[in-house]
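It is worth pausing here to work through a concrete case rather than discussing structure prediction in the abstract. The textbook approach is simple: state the sequence, then state the predicted structure, then interpret. We follow exactly that order.
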Amino acid sequence: MAWLTIAVIITMFVILFKTSLPPDVVFLSAITILFITGAVDEKSALGGFSSASVVTVAAMFIVVGGLYQTGVLKWVVNHVLGRPKSYAMAIIRLLFPAALLSSVVTDSVVTALFIKVVKIWAKKLNIAASKLLIPMSYASLVGGTLTLLGTAPNLIVSGLYADDTGDSMNIFTITPASLVCLMVFVLAIILMKGVLPTRKSPDDSFENTNEYTAELMVPSSSTEIGKTVGEAGLNNVPGGHLIEIIRFDKEVISPVSNDEFVMGGDRLVFSGNIEQIGELKKTHNLAVSDNQVFTLYGDDSRSRQIRTASVKFKSDLVGKCLSDTDFEKSNGVVVVAVSRDGERVNESPRNIILAPGDTLLMECPNTMTIEDFAEKTKDDFVVVKDEEVIKTSGKTIVSVIILLCMILLSSFKVLTVVQSSMLAALAMVLFRCCSPKTAQKSIEWNIIMMFACSVVLGKAIQNNGIADVVVTGITSICGDNVLLTMVLLSATALTLTEFISNTACSAIFYPIFFQTANNLGVDPKAFCIMLMLCVSMSFATPIGSPGNTMVYGPGGYRFSDFLKIGIPMNIIMLVTIVTTIYLMYVV
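Step two, the predicted structure:
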């Protein structure tokens, strides 16, 4: 059964890395195969779903929902940045709040909260947003290790440790070592200012609409009047395509179907290569508009709105042209422009072969909310949602008190972590900081599913003897050298977490770290803390964490940017983690 378990895990890794299948589906499929083949028994297969760690994560989603709804998170983001006078001070003012928030909120939530604020803040400070977005994403990862509640791997590892030893970790058990890592991280970012790229934001490349859109008038003498757009051949033209029609009475038609009639006085708004589109004046007897009505952000009375979204790395659209898909039609949107590496691509948007990280400027109906837009495009795009105006009130203070009580009850072991988090979630609902409906929506069930399956995978590795084989191999290489063993284990975990979820990585490596510590006569808690720190340091690729993926498009980054800053940072953190754990727990 050991070989079957290894084969299933390797296959799972390959599928996660090579395909766009949802991770929770892949994890559940792996557990199903292990259960059917007898690699794990019924108790083990279902045990992950009743794990205290899984319940804690679900409860924390509700707590975070309450903190968001009452404006606590928004208040922190909007009031802590200020106007620093140097880059070093800007980094300090940004990274510490992001890290502290991540100690109780997931890194993806923190990154989503900060992105737009940081872009506006960067303009005020006359600093390229690309100098701040990567550090902010990294800080949310490091900050997640400050407490057991900060990230899922902390809860998995601490839960498995409690099962094996009967000793429950305190919520701040990991904090001393993590604080050292945070201090070194911030100092390293300040010193590596020159390595951080200066990139142009995609939003900047979209600002001057005259560069990629053209308005042509339909004069009363035009031979195209009375024809449909399809009959006139105006929808897809050399160098671009028709994105909207503005009628003489200001009615806006977008998207434009082939059956739409052309009328005198219409303004036809095209997007693409302006020089090529300009030839329509001759071929279709059109006139240049005296003044361009189309703007990037129209007033609310118009029947369309502008959205931007970045192509995911595993999107099915990668390597394709939109003209070869039904994406626009099925989602009710029109692509206006495409930006790559912070520069607008001067071609017809529909004919551009899309690459990961490309940012698309899209026009969609006013009736489509940002939530609807994000839901419709979630398989292919990362969407940064608009700033939501949330006013603080008495409930803001109540939600903060609930959070503090949860932390205090857990840290002083009045209640366990799972008990305190469940009580806090209940309190958020009872005190109306979070409505029952919002609480239900706050729980990300796909993450819960993946989390539960990861726990089962960890048990399978331990029960089928795979951990024993790996530990024996490590011992044959390192012998009784504790420091060398720590370096080998940490480097392996740091590398693997760049390619798979830190949740899976922590569950897979836990039995190996735990048994290796026992074999060396070292406190297993030390190796468990080392594992928590390692699996959260995903710096070298934009796919290493949700936060990295989220800032990739808005920052105008290239894949190589993450390698240049991430690999040195990984090495720095590897040395810091091993040294800190060795001096604190081993010597």
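Step three, interpretation. The chain is about 55% helix and 10% strand. Residues 559-586 form the longest helix (28 residues).
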